[in-house]
Amino acid sequence: xxxxxxxxxxxxxxxxxxxxxxxxxxxxxxxxxxxxxxxxxxxxxxxxxxxxxxxxxxxxxxxxxxxxxxxxxxxxxxxxxxxxxxxxxxxxxxxxxxxxxxxxxxxxxxxxxxxxxxxxxxxxxxxxxxxxxxxxxxxxxxxxxxxxxxxxxxxxxxxxxxxxxxxxxxxxxxxxxxxxxxx
Length: 183
Fold this sequence. Notes:
Blueprint: E1 9-14, H1 20-31, E2 34-37, H2 38-45, E3 48-52, E4 57-60, H3 62-75, E5 78-81, E6 95-100, H4 103-112, H5 117-128, H6 131-139, E7 145-149, H7 153-175
Parallel strand pairs: 1-5, 1-6, 2-5, 6-7
Antiparallel strand pairs: 3-4
Helix pairs in contact: 1-7, 4-5
């Protein structure tokens, strides 16, 4: 972990509809880490640079988001939930989880969320071409980027258990003094 932090920072990312919010918020409850939904934060703090008529959504001002989160991320103990990842500083995260979902399941989830037309098609294509996974691999050290399947409730539970064990192990390691230099 980055110097000075005793609790890890985790990024949960992936194409919209892969289960990021459920995974990240449930993980925060289980681990007592802070949950940060970047979309909600942007709405609350008006961290936008405009409106995209084509997609019917705000355009995130990435610099404002980074400025808003800097102090909190330096303290550690955060789980960040967002569908993009390349604008976050690499130093912020100890581990990155990219959730992946098969195309049929993803299509159905996005339809249920009200996605249609180009927005639906482009998000499914994003998953087909592993856009978020590749973005994460290009933005962070390869050893901290982990791809997790998120198709079923059982897979989601397995992911939660796995990440929770990692958090417990990471926190335990920072709390135990390094005695290798003693003697």
